[in-house]
Amino acid sequence: MDTALQILQRYWRFSDFREAQKPILEAVLSDTDLLALLPTGGGKSVTFQVPALVKPGMTLVITPLVALMENQTAQLQTLGISAACLHSQQAPEQRRKTLTGIPQGRWKLLYLSPESLLSPPAWERLQQTIINRIVLDEAHCLTSWGSSFRPDYHRIGAVRRSLGNPPLCAFTATATPRTQQALVDLLGLQTPKILRNSPYRANLYLQVRKIWYPQQRLKEIQQFLTQRTLETGLIYLRTRNGTEKLAAHLRTLGFNTAAYHAGMAAEQRRETENRWLDGKLKFLCSTNAFGMGIDKPNVRWVIHGNTPLDLAEYVQEIGRAGRDGQPSKVLLLASEPTGWLDPTDRDLHRHFRQQYLEQRKKARQQLAQLPKTGTYRLEDALSLAILHEQGQLQWKTPFDYLLNTQSFQASAVELNTMEGYLGCRGCRWQFIISAFGWPKQSVCGHCDYCCPKAAF
Ligand SMILES: [Zn+2]
Predict the structure, then answer these.
(1) At 310, is the pLDDT very low, low, confident or very high (cuts 50, 70, 90)?
(2) CA dihedral sign, ordered 12, 18, 24, 27
(3) Of 195, 224, 250, which residue is a domain's last?
């Protein structure tokens, strides 16, 4: 700890670590495996950047976020720390320089995506150096479903074993106890320390409003926005098409907004994100592709125009409001439960559930055809990840698997928790808190059940 403090003072010029950083830092320095459930921001990166300099060798930081890799690498370089990143949007020259530096032991920290990590040029060089720790950011990519699901995350446990078994620290935002266990199992964490924070946020006012006819959704959104033209916010929708239609409609009404989804080019996504971060756009109409790694303090509201599929995803998305601690509003517009009058949510859920079941059906069919031991192929990536998630496949190395047709675990993805939240007949915060395995809070006063008068 003393060495860590000296490094912090020497490079970062801070006198001490923040209180919230200390337990994480202690766990990281003790070289045990770690699963830390933390929201974005709050100085998380220092807790693995400082320990990277304490030991000989290089720390690998695996993250799906290109912007984050670049920002953090640049920041470290400014502090005089030797860091580099590796991702698919880099110029070949830059990539070559990073790769050459690996066997030379030039980098103390290397940021990369799981796809870059497992690409032959990087993998070959990583064998020729000492890795002192693997940090896995956004670990929920392993268990979440849809656009943030990254099949290559499923091979990280085997990556660690093949790189001399360094300690593995996984970071993610909120996760239910069941998801925590799934992360421990899927990553093969060895007697990990688990650090977690309650999802409760005293400054977020939660409200659910039922939608009885499709036009009502637009009206509610419009009315909400008209009262808050100066506030920053986010509107989440399920589909790409939905975000574009809503953004176009709201622009015709004079609102300054844009769509954001994973179907847009990387450059355009980054530009849109920056315009929102700079305050040039007050809000975005986005799919769940937006928000990982985003740390904007003054987001005053988050609306969900459609019901999300998963409570953990929902809690993560609403957690982007009110990071500065100021009161913020969280509104969920949910189709009436029968789906007769407003079928929007019912149809979307059917569509996504169908897609989910089909992916699993395909994985099951492949299970019958795949050899009992085999080698990774890109075209099988999704099925192999699903089989791993279900406990039917083991990665012996990051490239070789062994099928295990006997065992079957229930999937880590939780599809039904959201229904409980919508139908809950009590305090909404209590529901979330107990769903995440925390003891009940005695006071709420800021949800539509506890304080209907404060509704917006
Ligand atoms: Zn309440």
Answers:
(1) confident
(2) positive
(3) 195
